[in-house]
Write a structure and sequence with these properties.
Elements: E1 15-19, H1 25-35, E2 39-44, H2 47-58, E3 67-70, H3 76-90, E4 93-98, H4 113-123, H5 125-141, E5 144-149, H6 162-182, E6 187-194, H7 200-205, H8 209-218, H9 227-238, E7 249-252
Parallel strand pairs: 1-2, 1-4, 2-3, 4-5, 5-6, 6-7
The protein binds nicotinamide-adenine-dinucleotide.
Nicotinamide-adenine-dinucleotide binds next to helix 1, strand 2 and helix 7.
Length: 257
């Protein structure tokens, strides 16, 4: 297994559910939790990438091979069914990583009500319904950790994708509300805010030479934020190492915001 920077013994054997765990940051999350000995189930629509990831990780002979569930999280009934399947396979889920999103750019003048609803159906609605379905499992298990993925984009006043930035700005509202409602039951809820992370998709679509200059000027730190840096923070938030952290935003952006 790849060497992690830190080992969190309490993550071994834990039932972990990840949305969008088949590629990008999600793939790093799947690999990192699996390397801790967690039982990972993830949903994704990218079937080929997800199956390739499972094959690659299985080749490393982990304690538990991740379970890929082909599911479009815009379909809440399908999302609930996938969560049921994950619980049946791995037991009560005690770490939920609400990671899946789609950052497709859009001009304000082109947005139709249908497109708007679709962006919300990907970038906002499933976070709530995944949490709603998994909270009873966490209650039964005596606690858990929910990590909702935000974004620095709206903090940096990035234009060209208002439906995405609105959804991402709303994440902390959901986090704080659920953190208040379930905190006394030892369920922690936090927002993980990635900076500009060098995933395959970002490198292919958006990271131009001009963008590289923007990153260098914006970040306090040299270098690039990689998916593994985000996974390191997710491991910390999932584990008991962050036992008294809830309702907060944890930013991994190289010191940009
Ligand atoms: N990469 C960045 O620079 C960056 C910056 C800020 C925030 N984020 C946030 O981090 C998280 C992960 O981002 P990423 O860059 O890895 O994204 P990505 O687009 O590379 O990967 C998202 C994953 O979710 C899956 N997915 C998309 N729509 C889905 C659907 N309807 N049903 C099921 N699965 C679906 C995709 O197939 C993919 O595997 C997102 O919440 C994103 O908003 C990323």
């Amino acid at each position: 297994m790849p060497q992690q920077n830190a080992i969190y013994p309490d993550l071994a054997g834990r039932s972990v559910f990840i949305t969008g765990g088949g590629s990008g940051i999600g793939a790093a999350l799947t690999a990192a939790f699996t390397a801790q000995g967690s039982k990972v189930a993830f949903v994704d629509i990218a079937r080929d990438a997800s199956e390739a990831l499972v094959r690659q990780i299985a080749g490393q002979k982990p304690r538990h091979v991740p379970l890929f569930l082909d599911c479009d999280i815009r379909d809440i009934a399908a999302l609930r069914a996938a969560i049921d399947q994950a619980r049946a396979a791995h037991g009560d889920i005690t770490v939920l990583l609400n990671n899946a999103a789609n950052d497709q750019r859009h001009r304000t003048e082109d947005v139709t009500p249908e497109f708007w609803d679709d962006r919300i159906a990907i970038n906002q609605r499933p976070m709530f319904f995944a949490a709603q379905a998994i909270l009873p499992q966490m209650q039964r298990a005596g606690g858990g950790s929910i990590v909702n993925f935000g974004s620095v984009s709206w903090k940096l006043r990035q234009g060209g994708m208002a439906a995405y930035t609105m959804a991402k700005a709303s994440v902390q509202g959901l986090t704080r509300s659920l953190a208040r409602d379930y905190g006394k039951q030892n369920i922690r809820v936090n927002t993980l805010v990635p900076g500009w992370v060098m995933t395959e998709r970002q490198l292919t679509h958006w990271v131009t030479p001009e963008a590289e200059k923007e990153i260098d000027a914006g970040q306090a730190l040299a270098g690039r934020v990689m998916p593994e840096h985000i996974a390191d923070m997710a491991l910390f938030l999932g584990s008991a190492a962050s036992a008294m952290c809830s309702a907060q935003e944890f930013v991994v952006d190289g010191g940009w915001t």
